[in-house]
Predict the 3D structure of the following.
Amino acid sequence: MNRRAMFLEALGIPAEWVPRKEPAAAEALIAESTVMVDAMEAVERAEALESADIAVAMELDQPAAVVATVPHMPVDMPDVHDAAEIAQTVEAFDAPSPAAAPVIPVLRQSTPAQDDREVAIAAMAWPTLSESVAGCTACGLCSGRTNTVFGVGDQQAEWMLVGEAPGENEDLQGEPFVGQAGKLLDNMLAALGLARDRNVYIANVLKCRPPGNRNPEPEEVAQCEPYLKRQIALIKPKVIVVLGRFAAQSLLRSTTPIGKLRGTVHSYEGIPVVVTYHPAYLLRTLTDKARAWEDLCLAREVHDREGTQA
Ligand code: URA
């Protein structure tokens, strides 16, 4: 661990993903500290990060596009500790794979029974919804699960994060993003002044683990999406951050690669959506961390702007 990381850890601030400008509280903590950060390191870092400043055009349902200037990205990403976990999951997420078939949920012909089920789920309150997920047998994934993974966080959150599906750890613990990718996600949230139990709700497109962390099947997505849709409707977040190619393409019903989906504000059921890379992918592909930080800054712009409109 380098000096800066030790310094930040001593302050109780995650060494990764600390924003340079915000949140103010984190910066104030750093400023107040009597510990000196190596000036050369800071200069080098600033120079290296210069290229991370970008202007992002945002396409909300507004007459004029808004252009947001993105602050410098935060400090380093963590080391990879659990290569097995990441290797198992990363391939399915964001890595460009021109040869891979699109993982998009097809527009399916729904049956009257499915329509009735969706209508019923759309009317559920939280307790019924979570019970319904816990007992769900709508697709084959139920036979292999240890636990369903409903979601975690503040049901009045202004921020919602949506991942793909539970992995092994999540299946065992019944909570989303509890492995190495989850630790990174927590650090990303901390960089925004957020935590999973404070003003954030985290859920997945699928509530059950696909065997071997394979890609979800379109029919599994189709059966599970009403649950996520209802969670979003109950929470009414100001912004949804979608993590990874699969979740983004599923939610937005798109075949566009993640590299093209990010950088623009999309919409799901009238709620602004920002797409970013999956944390498991970022653990392996450090070169994309600057882009992920840009995405989070874009999400913060959207969130703050929604706040002023409320
Ligand atoms: N990856 C996801 O997309 N969701 C989880 O909950 C864990 C890993």
The chain has a mean pLDDT of 76. The two ends are 43 Å apart (CA to CA). The longest strand covers residues 271-276.
